[in-house]
């Protein structure tokens, strides 16, 4: 075997099959995270589960949250319920600004995970829609320690995300090379 043939075989790359080469991500500006913290504060003070929705845009893999919507909800120490009227108001607010409801964020009294009730209760499900569960009623917000994040993927259902798949970017935008 000659040297060019040997080198060609040695350096020949074998593509790895992927259905989607990009890892799912949730991106949120710092100002949105601070607004989320404020939206969940009343339920924290009552020691009830809290609920908020994030509005933004998604392409099914990367979800950008820009705005927080705090619905009127019935809450207890271990549950929340958003009625149809409050959801309609949220949908109208998103549509008025050409946004999507891209995520549900709610708190748990203890550890963060997708409970059976969370899976059943997450009525919005489309590719790129996120569900974020915050532990301890959100006492550590705006820190994201201990959160559980999931993204709905067509054919796969709720996919668990790693903590580095949730990216907080500085400020509120617009973002340029000089400011982040």
Automatic annotation (TrEMBL):
Residues 47-124 form the JAB domain. The keyword Cytoplasm does not apply. It comes from Rhodobium orientis. InterPro entries: JAB_dom_prok. The keyword Protease applies. It comes from the Bacteria. One of its GO terms (molecular function) is metallopeptidase activity. GO terms for biological process: proteolysis. This is JAB domain-containing protein. Keywords: Hydrolase, Metal-binding, Metalloprotease, Protease, Zinc. Pfam families: Prok-JAB (PF14464).
């Amino acid at each position: 075997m000659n040297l060019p043939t040997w080198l060609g075989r040695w350096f020949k790359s074998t593509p790895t099959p992927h259905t989607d080469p990009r890892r799912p991500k949730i991106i949120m500006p710092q100002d949105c995270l601070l607004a989320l913290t404020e939206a969940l504060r009343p339920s924290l003070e009552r020691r009830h589960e809290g609920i908020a929705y994030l509005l933004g845009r998604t392409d099914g893999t990367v979800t950008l949250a820009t705005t927080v919507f705090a619905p009127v909800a019935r809450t207890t120490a271990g549950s929340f319920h958003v009625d149809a009227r409050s959801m309609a108001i949220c949908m109208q607010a998103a549509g008025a600004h050409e946004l999507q409801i891209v995520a549900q964020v709610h708190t748990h009294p203890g550890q963060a995970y997708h409970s059976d009730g969370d899976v059943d209760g997450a009525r919005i499900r489309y590719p790129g829609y996120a569900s974020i569960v915050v532990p301890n009623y959100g006492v550590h917000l705006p820190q994201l320690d201990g959160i559980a994040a999931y993204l709905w993927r067509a054919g796969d259902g709720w996919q668990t995300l790693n903590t580095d798949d949730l990216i907080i970017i500085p400020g509120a935008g617009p973002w340029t090379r000089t400011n982040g």
